[in-house]
Amino acid sequence: QVQLVESGGGLVQAGGSLRVSCAASGRAFSSYAMGWFRQAPGKEREFVSAISRNGGNTYYVDSVKGRFTISRDNAKNTMYLQMNSLKPEDTAAYYCAARYTAAFDSGNFYYTAKDDYSYWGQGTQVTVSS
Q1: Cα 52 vs. chain centroid, distance in angstroms?
Q2: Contact at 8 Å (CB) between 130 and 14?
Q3: Average pLDDT taken over every residue of the chain
């Protein structure tokens, strides 16, 4: 199993930047493909970005492409989401998620559906003011 803890959320003005982090503990971090999701009040939790186990492949929802960057440091058991040019519509609780894939994929795959993930953090709030 793996435990996930997000941090780094906060209040920022539109156009500003934030970096949120996801620290993992438990089973080897490199065994997990990882993803970021977000949920705004009254809305469904939605996919934001994903990264493969080896960090070599990434994917973004169209609304954040060119503004957000996902990365991971397997030596530090941590994943990051650098968010630039933030917009009020980016306001949400941001959740990291993990999927154990070491037994069945080569490390190059990412996953984009909520149901792909078994482990979730508690979330960190990002609020973008206009």
Answers
A1: 12
A2: yes
A3: 96
